[in-house]
Amino acid sequence: MDGADAPQPARSGSGVTACSTSTAQGRMNGGANASNNAAAAMEERFADVCKRKLVLDESTTRQAMQLFKETKIILLSSMSSLGSGSPEEIERSWCACVLYCVSKLGNAGKAKEDRGITLRQILRAFDLKIVDFFKEMPQFCIKVGFILTGLYGSDWEKRLELQELQANLVHLCSLGRHYRRAYQELFLLNDGKPANNSSELNVQQASEYYDFGWLLFLVLRNQASSAVKNLLTSTTELVSVLAVLIIHIPVRLRNFSIEDSSCFAKKSDKGVNLIASLCERYLTSEDELSKALQKTNILIKDILKKKPCSDVSECQQGSLSFIDPG
């Protein structure tokens, strides 16, 4: 017994501990690999959209890829808090935010006439609604603000013009509702069904006139400088478009009779004073509306390559009946 080896301390569990450590390390490595693979796949998809869908120039693509690479880790770590949609939807929103930042902040050296990629193109490329974009963009800016400061300077938020863009959208939505309501009061509007006592042709024409009026207004508004692009000025321009439509849309598509309509209260022995009546109805200035009409006529001339009617007889007599040409 004296020569017997002394009993060794118990080592129970040491093998389990080593095995557990090895397993945990393997899981960590596996998680890191999965994260790296996910990041690489996102980067590849983003690059594909930039090159194939949007066909961006080399400089813009390089800037977009740089910003995406520097922010993708934040995207991966924030997947659960960025939105209520699926990971795919969140990724598309993030990519759209990246490209919008590059389009606004990364084009300082470009000429003014080269506006680069537009928000509309970005939203189409990522199949994203503008409401969802405005929902995610503020969160994106909060999370990557320090990166934007490093890349584009401390004034990036001002140059991004996000608040101005949101205000512009709110104004356009309000003006769009105003235009639709006014058009429906004045003319037939195609809502998917033929209007009473009207043919399919009349309804189709009404829809085309409606679209033309709205597009004409958008071009007018786009030409205005940002300093005067306010809700009041835009409303006056919208009323000028209504005046043009009243004069040129055929009488059969009207919802009113101009000689006895309460819509046109300003009258004389020569007929309805269209400008004064519209100003009273839509609470705008006659001087401002006259100026807006001049701009609208010039724009129509430039777009359609047609000269305005030099004589009342050249216009549709039915549309001008009971309207004072003076």
From TrEMBL:
It comes from the Eukaryota. GO terms for biological process: cell differentiation; negative regulation of G1/S transition of mitotic cell cycle; regulation of transcription by RNA polymerase II. Residues 1-31 are annotated as: Disordered. GO terms for cellular component: chromatin; transcription regulator complex. It holds the Pfam family DUF3452. Residues 14-26 have a biased composition (Polar residues). Residues 103-248 form the Retinoblastoma-associated protein N-terminal domain. GO terms for molecular function: RNA polymerase II transcription regulatory region sequence-specific DNA binding. This is Retinoblastoma-associated protein N-terminal domain-containing protein. It comes from Aegilops tauschii subsp. strangulata (Goatgrass).
